[in-house]
Predict the structure.
Amino acid sequence: MTKKTLIERDRACTWHPYTQHGLGRDPMEVASAKDATLTLTDGREVIDAISSWWAILHGHGDPILIEAMRQQFETLDHVLFAGATHEPAVRLAERLVEVTPKGLDRVFYSDNGSTAVEVALKIALQNFAQNGQPERQVFIALNGAYHGDTFGSMSVGDPDPFFEAYRPFLFDCIRIDPTAEALSQAFEQLGGRAAGVIVEPLIQGAAGMQTNSIEFLQAVRQQCDQNRVPFIADEVMTGFGRTGSLFACDRAGVSPDLMCLAKGLTGGIFPLSATVVSETLFQGFFSEDRMRTFFHGHTFTAHPVGCAVALASLQLNIDRKVPERLQAIGERIRARISPLESNPGVSQLRQVGGMVAWDLVGSKDNDAGYLSQVGPALHQASLDMGVLLRPLGNVVYALPPACTTDAQADQIADTMLALADRFA
């Protein structure tokens, strides 16, 4: 019998996320990874310019994170967090309370960004329901928002194009453009039914790396206070230095009532998430009545190994000045692709921290949006040049890890320039 290739075996038994298998596009075959480089099974090396879905923060295979993982596995591999506790979870919670914006005092652990958002939404809704305001059931979110794939996070996301099939099962949400005026109008429309505002601060990832302003975030904080509803900051992608500060909210000088963290929490190498919550919201559940319990949890809540890795990753953020390094990488790429400002086929050249993006608008064949036909072609062309980019439809962006060298940043920039030359 002929030995099957990895791709043949993959085709026979796997189902990849956000992939239309009927189009017949094979995935890249990855054999190993180190720092900012992926090595494919055919020996080619590819720069991971998108941090493997915005997660890898310090680089692949960082020895300090690997050692933290190894040591914790040898000490305590796993224990339930309902009715038990352990040093890594408590120490990580203490550190997160120290470094997140003032007023976030409690940490609820889960396992990915979607569930971190789900936790935040459920806390907000249940708190109102059991404290005399059950009519507060409608969240305000941004147009184009993406907060995850569980039903609550889908509900505050934008159904188009990802979640149309589930629309009948999603709860009500008002979506607005990121302006103070639009937010004020939404509050006026809802009256006493508003349950909270959820925002991806500074950068809306899946919306095409669209940006919102510091002034808007400050308006969210002010209007949430005025209307006595929680401000939920989804920092799953923007947290841990991606925007040039440890958290995007830091740049705006605002403190949300709930902050959702994942991806870079462990440096992107172990699944763990956290919802950091104000003491006021925690006290809304504190009672001798068991029915006021927050009935939510996961088998791997506060996984000891994940917590140990997250502690090591957080220390690396400080020791290596990761926010500053990511800011420098973003500025270097942005400066090198500055000729695109005069390219008529390119619009909205933008950079926030380590994120650099532009929109391709060049020809009638370059339709816009996530399902743009040009996206897969841009992806393949970048791979052929040794750089992993995964365009969001017609939006080309880079979000590389902090270990990216100047030479690699230049190669990423040169690839983005070449894509514009070819497709714009």
In short: Residues 406-423 form the longest helix (18 residues). The chain has a mean pLDDT of 96. The chain is about 35% helix and 15% strand.
